[in-house]
Design brief:
Belongs to the ABC transporter superfamily. Helix content is 36%, strand content 20%. With 340 residues, it is of the alpha/beta class. It has a domain of 86 residues. An 8-stranded mixed β-sheet has the order 6-7-8-3-9-10-12-11, sandwiched between helices. Strands 2-1-4-5 form a 4-stranded antiparallel β-sheet, covered by helices on one side.
Amino acid sequence: MTQPILELDTLRMVYNTDPGILARLTGRADPPVIAADDVTLKLHPGQTLAVVGESGSGKTTAGRIATLQERPTAGRVLFEGRDVTGLTGAALKAFRAKVQMIFQNPYDALNPRMTVGQSLAEPLTLHRLVPRTGLRAAVLEMLEAVELRPAASFADAFPSELSGGQLQRIAIARALIIKPRVVIADEPVSMLDVSIRSGVMNLMRGLQRDTGVTYLYITHDLSVARYMADRIAVMYLGAVLEEGPVETLVTGAAHPYTRLLIRAAPEHRAGKTRRTRIRLPGDAASQAGLPSGCRFHPRCPLAQPVCRETAPALAPVGAGQVAACHFAEEVGRHGLAVPA
């Protein structure tokens, strides 16, 4: 396989909590929040890696670190094989021209006081990619590419005049107009009406075919990940529990958590889907004060004493597939029917 274009290498992200007045008086401060714990993810050129997990899994933290909006407590971000973790100034600006982000909420992603044309022209001006005389043509071309027609009408509109689906297409256009190598897409369709989600997903796939852009696609919905991605990484409480090629992982998941996600996810097809949220037995532990041993054992239907005592490492279980489970081989063969 080719060298990764973007790699998160053994990232650790720890947030120290504000103790508050009561904690200061009693001397009982909350433990730090571990949002990422030894996370390694590799994005290969022209492909999509989907990161899947419940709220609090650390997937959005991984995306923010990938764009250097946040700097990790430990670990590295590599772009085209070069460590970019500590970039500042002009070098950081150049990096962000190559690694862009699409945010979950299209209503917050655009300045309400700027027209669509002005919002799309702004990154071109910021990075000095197009002369002022060519801005209008570049904006109209990008609006055509995201299927907003007539392009001139949309260019002169304000965000308040457009629907959520149209705004998300504009957010996608704004990320892609400077021709980045990588786009981090954080739940880009989760706030859209069910009826228009597939159209936006198909648009993103088509743009990838046309431009060769690489996606890190963050989602809570494994069925969306299956439709969009080449590979899936499953995160839970800040750690990657399983990763592998899409069909290998979906048909032969080797971690109980992944198996439960598959059960919870609706089927997604190009023309139809429905919104869902992952709902699994029990409550997820907090990222502050993780359980001993395997972090998933309090909710795992197959948990054994070893799971409470020893944290399993990510280990190969098949071609290009890794899982962090003491019983990964058995789960891969028999699923959740493995006797506890």
